[in-house]
């Protein structure tokens, strides 16, 4: 079976799904089921930690079926992200974190310096760190050197649905990677997810494209198929692109039909 690894964990599904923006928890739960995902990201700042016994997001996620990946969405500094990760561990969640440090509310681009700083601190505290970054090959190498378990370059801005605008940089990151590469942000359709996997990414993380679809459950299923097709295409090996046509039929050994 074509499994992949993040730190000490092994997974079959190469689709990670977010939990934000759904119209209701029931719709979210049905989409998770349809997607076949095994990793579900949860923003800690969405949880009502002052009332842990009140029904909320975590009540709708079957922790026997899904591995919860806490994320630091909403954190603007390295210090905030580090404290949020520590809080997740204190709550008994798995000791890993999708690290997001985003100070800019307009474009929602991650802070590379703060992300690297927080990664170094959390790795030293035995966290498995999955940093969300711009599609920056140099930063990706530095994060791997710092002990990151994956790198998660954005395809295009969060929630934009623009697809893989950063494809050339993502290809370089994949070529140089020593850890799994997870394409995160900007995926708007199953074809975007398929392309990410065709390039050699280990997985992709999708939220808005599913949650805000007219039919999130059907879209979750469609994205799953896109991921599976992309991975199969990568393993099969696509033909090289050529500038000229190439006939499908052989040009030698043909029967002579002349007079």
TrEMBL record:
Tell me which InterPro entries the record gives.
Aldolase_TIM, Thiazole_synthase_ThiG, ThiG
- Active site annotation, chain numbering: 98 (schiff-base intermediate with dxp)
Q: Extract the Pfam families matched here.
A: ThiG
Which EC number(s) are documented for this chain?
A: 2.8.1.10
- What segment(s) does the record annotate as region Disordered? 238-259
Keyword Transferase listed? The answer is yes
Q: Which residues are in the Thiazole synthase ThiG domain?
A: 8-250
Keywords, ordered alphabetically: Cytoplasm, Schiff base, Thiamine biosynthesis, Transferase
Known catalysed reaction(s)?
Answer: [ThiS sulfur-carrier protein]-C-terminal-Gly-aminoethanethioate + 2-iminoacetate + 1-deoxy-D-xylulose 5-phosphate = [ThiS sulfur-carrier protein]-C-terminal Gly-Gly + 2-[(2R,5Z)-2-carboxy-4-methylthiazol-5(2H)-ylidene]ethyl phosphate + 2 H2O + H(+)
Q: Name one GO molecular function term.
A: thiazole synthase activity
Ranges of biased composition (kind: Polar residues): 243-259
- Report which residue ranges the record marks as coiled coil: none
Any one Gene Ontology BP term: thiamine diphosphate biosynthetic process
Q: Main localisation, per the record?
A: cytoplasm
- What subcellular locations does the record give? Cytoplasm
Query: Per its UniProt record, what Gene3D superfamilies does this chain match?
Result: Aldolase class I
Q: Which domain of life is it from?
A: Bacteria
Q: In which pathway does it act?
A: Cofactor biosynthesis; thiamine diphosphate biosynthesis
Q: Which residues bind 1-deoxy-D-xylulose 5-phosphate?
A: 159, 185-186, 207-208
What does the record note on quaternary structure? Homotetramer. Forms heterodimers with either ThiH or ThiS.
Recorded family membership:
Belongs to the ThiG family.
Query: What's the stated role of this polypeptide?
Result: Catalyzes the rearrangement of 1-deoxy-D-xylulose 5-phosphate (DXP) to produce the thiazole phosphate moiety of thiamine. Sulfur is provided by the thiocarboxylate moiety of the carrier protein ThiS. In vitro, sulfur can be provided by H(2)S.
Spell out the protein name for this chain.
Thiazole synthase
Q: What high-level taxonomic lineage is stated for the organism?
A: Bacteria, Bacillati, Chloroflexota, Ktedonobacteria, Ktedonobacterales
């Amino acid at each position: 079976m074509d499994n992949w690894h993040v730190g000490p964990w092994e997974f079959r599904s190469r689709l990670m799904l977010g939990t934000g923006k759904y119209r209701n928890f029931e719709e979210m739960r049905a989409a998770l089921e349809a997607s076949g995902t095994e990793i579900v990201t949860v923003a800690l700042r969405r949880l009502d930690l002052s009332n842990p016994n009140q029904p909320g997001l975590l009540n709708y996620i079957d922790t026997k079926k899904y591995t919860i990946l806490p994320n630091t969405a909403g954190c603007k500094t390295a210090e905030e992200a580090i404290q949020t990760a520590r809080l997740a561990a204190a709550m008994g969640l798995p000791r890993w974190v999708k690290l997001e440090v985003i100070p800019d509310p307009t474009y929602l681009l991650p802070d590379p310096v703060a992300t690297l700083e927080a990664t170094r601190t959390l790795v030293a505290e035995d966290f498995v760190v999955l940093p969300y970054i711009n599609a920056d090959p140099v930063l990706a190498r530095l994060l791997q050197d710092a002990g990151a378990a994956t790198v998660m370059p954005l395809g295009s801005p969060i929630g934009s649905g623009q697809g893989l605008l950063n494809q050339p940089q993502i290809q370089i990151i994949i070529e140089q990677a020593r850890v799994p590469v997870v394409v995160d942000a900007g995926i708007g359709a199953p074809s975007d997810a398929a392309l990410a996997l065709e390039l050699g990414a280990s997985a992709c993380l999708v939220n808005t494209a599913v949650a805000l679809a007219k039919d999130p459950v059907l879209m979750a299923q469609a994205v799953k198929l896109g991921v599976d097709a992309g991975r199969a295409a990568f393993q099969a090996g696509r033909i090289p692109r050529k500038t000229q046509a190439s006939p499908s039929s052989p040009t030698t050994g043909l029967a002579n039909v002349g007079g």
